[in-house]
């Protein structure tokens, strides 16, 4: 089944309100046949930048290749905790090489996942620590995956202190969010915020300082309300931004503007703010 188009109401809201999807997996095989169309829909929906995130060496290399082909795409390189047993001297050397590529703007996703435990906890901690050290050495932000592991994740972050980073697909409490912010991290909203009935997540997102909130899709995963069961894609990040705006009791355009500025600051995305200002002017037309 072909992906649904962006809802007309949401598309109308996007006029003059531009977004960054800070966490995508556009190298996933589910985009093999229509990646150009997916990226086209993202741009039509008002996205001015997308970050393609690596989760092992192969996907990190692929992320670098995609970013090199598109002026509005950047990459991060890293090894997910599910693959922590693959982290050795050779893997870290390759990550170090990839991190030096000109369109690489972060390390990750990396972190701890004690929910699935596909790698032993000790190996996860070692892999995470090694990547935190690489982020510090390169002066790059770290993209953190933490599932059922928040205390251990925060402990390692406190001891390693990367220059900055993001709690990807944040799904914790307000206390967790503020503890992350205190360690220099941003908080990223994703699809669960659009459908979670328990208000814990919404309250946590409401507690985050304005300058530390960003949005993502984590596509092709975590499709938002209205698209569950479908392949996710970057155009749907506007639905996440709408949910964040509701949680924080602000307007959609304010939320879009704030999260875009924050994403540019976090990942040091050159030229995006200038390009987004020009694009917004073009979309809204000249002043009356």
From TrEMBL:
<feature type="binding site">
    <location>
        <position position="168"/>
    </location>
    <ligand>
        <name>a divalent metal cation 2</name>
    </ligand>
</feature>
<feature type="binding site">
    <location>
        <position position="218"/>
    </location>
    <ligand>
        <name>a divalent metal cation 1</name>
    </ligand>
</feature>
<keyword id="KW-0479">Metal-binding</keyword>
<dbReference type="InterPro" id="IPR032466">
    <property type="entry name" value="Metal_Hydrolase"/>
</dbReference>
<feature type="binding site">
    <location>
        <position position="109"/>
    </location>
    <ligand>
        <name>a divalent metal cation 1</name>
    </ligand>
</feature>
<dbReference type="GO" id="GO:0016788">
    <property type="term" value="F:hydrolase activity, acting on ester bonds"/>
</dbReference>
<dbReference type="InterPro" id="IPR015991">
    <property type="entry name" value="TatD/YcfH-like"/>
</dbReference>
<dbReference type="GO" id="GO:0004536">
    <property type="term" value="F:DNA nuclease activity"/>
</dbReference>
<dbReference type="InterPro" id="IPR001130">
    <property type="entry name" value="TatD-like"/>
</dbReference>
<feature type="binding site">
    <location>
        <position position="25"/>
    </location>
    <ligand>
        <name>a divalent metal cation 1</name>
    </ligand>
</feature>
<protein>
    <submittedName>
        <fullName>Uncharacterized metal-dependent hydrolase YcfH</fullName>
    </submittedName>
</protein>
<dbReference type="Pfam" id="PF01026">
    <property type="entry name" value="TatD_DNase"/>
</dbReference>
<dbReference type="GO" id="GO:0005829">
    <property type="term" value="C:cytosol"/>
</dbReference>
<feature type="binding site">
    <location>
        <position position="145"/>
    </location>
    <ligand>
        <name>a divalent metal cation 2</name>
    </ligand>
</feature>
<dbReference type="GO" id="GO:0046872">
    <property type="term" value="F:metal ion binding"/>
</dbReference>
<dbReference type="InterPro" id="IPR018228">
    <property type="entry name" value="DNase_TatD-rel_CS"/>
</dbReference>
<keyword id="KW-0378">Hydrolase</keyword>
<feature type="binding site">
    <location>
        <position position="23"/>
    </location>
    <ligand>
        <name>a divalent metal cation 1</name>
    </ligand>
</feature>
């Amino acid at each position: 089944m072909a992906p649904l188009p962006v809802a007309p109401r949401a598309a109308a809201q996007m006029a003059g309100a531009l977004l960054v999807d800070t966490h995508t997996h556009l190298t996933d095989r589910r985009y093999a046949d229509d990646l150009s169309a997916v990226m086209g829909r993202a741009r039509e929906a008002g996205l001015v930048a997308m970050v393609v995130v690596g989760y092992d060496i192969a996907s990190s290399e692929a992320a670098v290749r995609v970013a090199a082909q598109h002026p509005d795409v950047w990459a991060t390189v890293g090894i997910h905790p599910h693959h922590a047993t693959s982290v050795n001297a050779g893997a870290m050397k390759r990550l170090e090489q990839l991190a030096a590529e000109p369109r690489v703007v972060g390390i990750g996703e990396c972190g701890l996942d004690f929910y699935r435990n596909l790698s032993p906890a000790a190996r996860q901690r070692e892999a995470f620590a090694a990547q935190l050290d690489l982020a510090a050495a390169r002066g790059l932000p770290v993209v953190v995956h933490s599932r059922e592991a928040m205390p251990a994740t925060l402990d390692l972050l406190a001891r390693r202190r990367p220059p900055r980073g993001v709690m990807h697909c944040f799904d914790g409490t307000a206390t967790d969010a503020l503890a992350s912010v205190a360690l220099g991290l941003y908080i990223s909203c994703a699809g669960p915020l659009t459908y979670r009935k328990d208000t814990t997540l919404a309250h946590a997102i409401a507690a985050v300082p304005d300058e530390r909130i960003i949005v993502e899709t984590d596509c092709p995963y975590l499709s938002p309300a209205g698209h569950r069961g479908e392949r996710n894609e970057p155009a749907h990040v506007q639905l996440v931004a709408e949910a964040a705006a509701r949680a924080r009791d602000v307007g959609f355009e304010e939320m879009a503007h704030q999260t875009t500025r924050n994403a540019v600051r976090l990942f040091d995305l050159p030229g995006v703010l200038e390009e987004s200002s020009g694009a917004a002017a073009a979309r809204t037309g000249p002043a009356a």
